[in-house]
Amino acid sequence: MNFTTFEPGGNSVPKSAVRFTQAEVRDIRSRPLVGESLLAHRARLVGGMMRLCGAPRALLDYGSPPSR
Predict the structure, then answer these.
(1) What is the pTM of this model?
(2) Exposed, middle or buried by CB within 10 Å (0-12, 13-18, 19+), for 34?
(3) Is the dihedral of CA 21, 9, 49, 45 positive or negative?
(4) CB of 27 within 8 A of CB of 36?
């Protein structure tokens, strides 16, 4: 998880970003996505971010076919 955030992200990663600890990674890995699609899981997380943090609705468009 740290690799996918920090390595490809390069200079775009905010200076305040903190790497996951071993305990956090172990906890996340203990709950694999089973029985829920990745898109459904992401939609649930984005909905929570919208409620708690005011994240933009545009984040819900992920996985939709591009408009022409």
Answers:
(1) 0.49
(2) exposed
(3) negative
(4) no
